[in-house]
């Protein structure tokens, strides 16, 4: 019966793919017909081809990569006046971002936030398990571009890339630059102020050396509804980053990266009938040293890096400031990795790599680890322990060019750990070029996600329940298939993709009964899910200064255990963008729309456990260059003040600022 339901839904979803493909056929026919026309005239329409690195760990032209990769450029980040990762990632139609408890929880192609791996220049980050914290924490002042790889990527990246990868690629200090950007914004009623200032400085190349420095300071005032539901917590954050390069030769470079984040967050809420204040003091240090080589004959990267995260949490009675409870958490992840790429024979570009990762996790929420300890603060006692996990892996990839039209890229990775059974993750992708401007792509990928320290060892008492870790749970796994047709000609570009993902052994907190007055939830492998959908994109560059783009995602996400829709995954999402530049006047205007349709929400305050919501939000930004070095900008998020306390959907947010470049 279950197989019949899944097959029926596959047929329904694939019907959508065929339906939109029929709309795409005239465009394809025009591309094929255009290819037979004058080649010299056609050459005038070809733009510089975009190069990405995340899909294959090599520099590859985007049109050749048999995977779905979206690229967010520095120009797009600037147009949106984006300060944090969250500010820009929401305009990808494959992402749905749900706001809850003052934070934003993203889902990529219907997968949970914890199933998307975030990298900075290919490096993992240590922090909270959930992706929502990083959306608010990662700032963009030193970012060159963001690559979003959709679908399982464990064949190259191992655990955590069950749903995809976000790779934030930072700027290299090859050119002199000095930039300073203050920004201020408030909600329509004047509350919930956002204050930020970001800076980037690069000395360019000085002999063989390069150096860049960047930093930011962000401050957010609390923002709550009349019923004191907090939509935004009080938070201050400071970041600093440094990149140093040294060129041994024109092909070989030493790279030293360092980053620091300090975050203080406070939130007032009710615990039973008592008003309490939750205080989080978080900090993270990242340090990386690597050597890269890129020559016509050989490419390699050898790197070691360390990510250290420190969290201190307190809960105090608001009226007396008496300490009620506290937690301390430290998470350290040293990593050594490397990969080598070399052309073998004539048409094989082979990449071989490996990784060793050691994870140390200790804190007062870790109850079943080793080396137990006790901490006392203001008369309150908290016990904890330490957990250690070791991971090692090796992977192999071959980029095969067959003739002028066919590219086949198989890859496989072996992962092992001292806590879990080994995992083999294969992937294969194919790109076939029907014409120079029309392509068909298909791929299969296997993904997995090892249980996190929280799911293994945590013991988290809340006001009326306890969430408890389980050292016996297994990794989550997924198998994904996708096929797409894409092309471009002149001012037009378009793409349509069908994807299907089968997820098994999903980890959930299951009710395990009562412990005194507390309900106990224990992490277990319990459920399976089938997630499939259709993505369509169309771009139109009307002139050099005016472009229009639109993207649509149809998503069918189901819990196979009970044949119910997964909540917080909209059936429809449409994102449209219009970008206009008047270069002689130094004016820029940008308009975005985000439409969410048939989204199944789980509302804690509602008697009905689930409701269906549709909404549409408009965003606008304007900028004016006063001089070559000085630019004013302003904008409105949620232009028409759409609000909904159930979702919650916050009203209009107005902002403005200055960009100074020297």
UniProtKB/TrEMBL annotation:
**Which key words tag this protein in UniProt?**
Cell outer membrane, Membrane, Receptor, Signal, TonB box, Transmembrane, Transmembrane beta strand, Transport
Recall the GO molecular function terms of this protein's record: siderophore uptake transmembrane transporter activity
Q: Where in the cell is it found?
A: Cell outer membrane
Q: What is the recorded membrane topology of this protein?
A: Multi-pass membrane protein
* GO annotations of cellular component type: cell outer membrane
Q: Which Pfam families match?
A: Plug (PF07715), TonB_dep_Rec_b-barrel (PF00593)
Q: What is its main location?
A: membrane
InterPro entries xrefs: Beta-barrel_TonB, Beta-barrel_TonB_sf, Plug_dom, Plug_dom_sf, TonB-dep_rcpt-like
Q: List, alphabetically, the SUPFAM superfamilies matched.
A: Porins
**Record-annotated TonB-dependent receptor plug domain positions:** 62-165
> Which GO biological process categories is it annotated with?
siderophore transmembrane transport
Range of residues in the leader sequence: 1-38
Domain of life from the UniProt record: Bacteria
Q: Which residues form the TonB-dependent receptor-like beta-barrel domain?
A: 246-639
Gene3D superfamilies, per this entry?
A: TonB-dependent receptor, beta-barrel domain, TonB-dependent receptor, plug domain
Q: PROSITE patterns per the record? A: TONB_DEPENDENT_REC_3 (PS52016)
Report the family membership: Belongs to the TonB-dependent receptor family.
Q: What is this protein called?
A: TonB-dependent receptor
Origin species, per record, is Candidatus Nitrobium versatile
């Amino acid at each position: 019966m279950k197989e019949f339901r899944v097959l029926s839904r596959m047929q329904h979803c694939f019907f959508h793919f065929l339906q939109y493909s029929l709309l795409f056929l005239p465009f394809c026919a025009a591309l094929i017909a255009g290819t037979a026309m004058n080649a010299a005239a056609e050459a005038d329409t070809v733009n510089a081809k975009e190069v990405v690195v995340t899909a294959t760990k090599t520099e590859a032209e985007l049109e050749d990569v048999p995977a779905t990769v979206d690229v967010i450029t520095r120009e797009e980040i600037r147009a949106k006046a984006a300060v944090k990762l969250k500010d820009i990632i929401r305009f990808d139609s494959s992402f749905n971002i749900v706001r809850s408890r003052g934070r934003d929880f993203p889902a990529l192609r219907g997968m949970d936030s914890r199933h998307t791996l975030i990298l900075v220049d290919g490096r993992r980050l240590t922090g909270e398990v959930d992706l929502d914290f990083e959306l608010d924490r990662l700032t963009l002042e030193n970012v060159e571009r963001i690559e979003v790889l959709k679908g399982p990527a464990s064949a190259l990246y191992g655990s955590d890339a069950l749903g995809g990868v976000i790779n934030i690629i930072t700027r290299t200090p090859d050119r002199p630059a000095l930039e300073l950007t203050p920004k201020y914004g408030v909600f329509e009623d004047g509350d919930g102020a956002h204050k930020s200032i970001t800076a980037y400085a690069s000395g360019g190349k000085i002999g063989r050396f390069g150096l860049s420095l960047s930093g930011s300071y962000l401050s957010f005032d609390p923002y709550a509804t009349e019923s004191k539901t907090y939509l935004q917590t009080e938070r201050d954050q400071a970041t600093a980053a440094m990149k140093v390069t040294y060129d041994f030769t024109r092909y070989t470079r030493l790279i030293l990266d360092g980053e620091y984040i300090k975050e203080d967050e406070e939130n007032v809420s009710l615990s039973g009938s008592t008003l309490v204040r939750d205080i989080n003091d978080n900090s993270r240090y990242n340090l990386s040293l690597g050597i890269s080589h890129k020559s016509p004959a050989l490419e390699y990267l050898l790197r070691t890096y360390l990510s250290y995260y420190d969290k201190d949490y307190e809960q105090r009675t608001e009226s007396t400031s008496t300490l009620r409870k506290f937690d301390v958490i430290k998470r350290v992840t040293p990593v050594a990795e490397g990969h080598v790429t070399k052309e073998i024979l004539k048409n094989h570009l082979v990449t071989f790599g490996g990784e060793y990762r050691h994870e140390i996790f200790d804190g007062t929420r870790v109850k079943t680890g080793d080396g137990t300890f006790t901490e006392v603060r203001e008369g309150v006692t908290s016990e904890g322990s330490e957990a250690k996990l070791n991971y090692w892996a090796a992977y192999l990839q071959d980029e095969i060019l067959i003739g002028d039209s066919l590219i086949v890229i198989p890859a496989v990775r072996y992962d092992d750990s001292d806590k879990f059974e080994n995992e083999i993750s294969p992937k294969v992708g194919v790109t076939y070029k029907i014409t120079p401007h029309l392509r068909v792509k298909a791929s299969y990928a296997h993904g997995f996600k090892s249980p996190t320290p929280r799911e293994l060892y945590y013991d988290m008492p809340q006001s009326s329940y306890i969430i408890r870790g389980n050292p016996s749970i297994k990794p989550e796994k997924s198998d994904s298939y996708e096929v797409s047709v894409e092309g471009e000609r002149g001012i037009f570009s378009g793409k349509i993709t069908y994807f299907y993902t089968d997820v098994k052994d999903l980890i959930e907190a299951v009710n395990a009964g009562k412990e005194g007055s507390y309900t106990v939830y224990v992490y277990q492998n319990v459920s399976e899910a089938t997630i499939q959908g259709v993505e369509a994109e169309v771009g139109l560059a009307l002139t050099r200064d005016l472009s229009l783009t639109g993207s649509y995602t149809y998503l069918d996400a189901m819990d196979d255990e009970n044949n119910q829709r997964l909540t917080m995954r909209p059936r429809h999402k449409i994102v449209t963008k219009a970008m206009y530049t008047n270069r002689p006047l130094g004016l820029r205007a940008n308009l975005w729309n985000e439409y969410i349709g048939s989204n199944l929400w789980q509302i804690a305050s509602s008697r009905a456990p689930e409701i269906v919501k549709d909404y549409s939000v408009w965003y606008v930004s304007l900028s004016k260059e006063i001089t070559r070095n000085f630019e004013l900008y302003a904008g409105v998020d949620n232009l028409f003040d759409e609000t909904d306390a159930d979702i919650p959907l916050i009203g209009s947010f107005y902002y403005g600022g200055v960009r100074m470049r020297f």
